[in-house]
Predict the structure of MMPL domain protein.
Amino acid sequence: MSAPPHSATSAAPGVFGRLAAWSQTHRWGALLLWVLAVAAVTAGSQAAGSAYRNDFTLPGTDSQTATDLLAEHGSRQAGDSVQIVFRDEGGLRAERGTVGRTLDRVRGLPSVVEVRGPYADASAISRDGTVGYATVTLDGKAEQVPKEDVTRVIDTARAAEGHGLEVALGGDAVRGAEEGGGGVAEGAGMLAALVILVMLFGSLVAAALPLVTAVFAVGGAIGLIALASHVFTVADFTPPVMMLVGLGVGVDYALLIFYRYRHELIRGADRHTATRTALDAAGRTVFFAGCTVIIALLGLVALGLGALQGVALAVALTVLVTMAASLVLLPALLAVLGGRVRRQVLRRAERARAKGREEGRRWRALAGAVQRRPLPALLAAVVALLALSAPALSLRLGFADAGNEPTTSTSRRAYDLLAEGFGPGFNGPLVVVSRGDAAAARELRTALAHTDGIVATTPPLPSEDGAVSTVLAFPATSPQDEGTTDLVHTLRDRVLPPLAGRTGAEYLVGGPTAAAQDFADSVADRMPLFVAVVVGLSALLLMVVFRSLLIPLKAALLNLLSIAAALGVITLVFQEGWFGAQPGPIEAFIPVMIFAIVFGLSMDYEVFLVSRIHEEWERTRDPSHAVREGLAATGKVITAAAAIMIVVFAAFVLSPDRMLQQFGLGLAVAVLLDAVVIRCLIVPAVMRLLGARAWWLPAPLA
């Protein structure tokens, strides 16, 4: 069967077509190069190990200044602490000997600076005498203390359990030591993706090609980031995020190219020409879509938040490697297995023709139905997205604490025991630092004790040189409660400034609870700049690709709408507690990470769909026909690609980690809305209303 004359195959190959030709010619060399590269990177990363570390420093904030001040003056409160909580229904006084011996053993452990027992301070035992806590001060912040040292503290303390005595441990360091992996999320996502691909192509070999490409890409990227963690600050939660994005994007990119390859085979092209044509068309789409994702991720650097910069660079590198695998590795795989794949594709297409099934018929009919009544379709879709977006207006940023942990964890048990014995605020004390004399510190405690929302304070704890003192203030509300956030702002804005003016001392509100609020406030303050940078650069890139002013503006607005709707769903589920989720604030970096990734991923479908519409527009100059044919040619693959990304992302809801659950749900909802509501309803309606004006570009820009 000879290829019919059409521009896609008869035109001279572009840069991606030439790249495909090279991969085909040197197929075994290209495959060997990828295998050796991934093997070398994996072996190197396993030999060197990883050096993931979190950087939650926020220069210029009160909490960071307080931490630096305590460290500078040798205060023991500069490090994070672990609470060992004891409970005995018969009363803790009878357990004094057991508790004392346990704490003596803890004092001798690595990374432990000080241990203050429950009997040293009457306020450390509840009024009914059944619950008490010891404070173990560590020699650094939670993310700096080796997990094995924290695990030894946990094991040593819990060895005292028995005969009516219950022991639980809390604190950020304990939560970090208890954290598990991603569970079955990755495996479930991969299995679901394979099932969808087999249903799409009717062939296990054809279905495996996109998956193999994605696995090679993700494997190489994870090894590279593990090595890079020795040089750059990369957060310890980066690998599962990379896996999440890498699998979704890797399968997505390879699928877009493979589907175009299949389309060219059905049109009659030989497999080598089909590969080059697919790379010239869909490969160009993948390249620009990948660049958009990378631009969006690098936009996180503009936020200036150390904890996010390493994650953004790592995920951007993952997308870059998956893009390279789709453009180089996939053509080589097609050259090796292309004959078998071609026979299966043509055999299935012949069976479909024999049954009278026309590819894209339903999508063409859908586009026609939307075009007949574009305004009602547009309004209905936009109203639905706005309704989903509405809850995001009450989005409250923060960080999950032990109250969001499974009830089986020791940190959650300690959290519940402290709340039961002393009130919810004991799980998130505010560390208020005074730089001044002892009288200024005493006045600080008096002022805090008379502040609404504070139920207890400790005596001032001086540093080694006596230059600074620390007062712990226990709020009436839990760390995640909105009342605690208001209390932090009240202290900083209304209580401490007049006190400082009267005593001449400097007062700072610090500690983990205040630091979490500072991080959330910093994200909220810098979000507008981040959105402007990402939207501006992405729109500029699309303007260059399509030589149009209105299409980039449309894409930016629709992407913002789908992201807002996804954040609205996250708010309902995780903040309001729908579907049985533990209510609490949304992780502070989730909105910016979802925005960066989804804004880029949405461009995959935008570029893929609009590229096919543009091809038909260039050929026929009929805008309505171009939209129908563009959706008919891409509707099936966009839906399949979206379904794969949805199941990969949604699988991470199975993770025990609350951050990954929010991340997975947000990405899955955004992709679902983008592929179904926006690409299938809003885009055809908007393109019909714009008509030929969609491709307008002012002469000076042209």
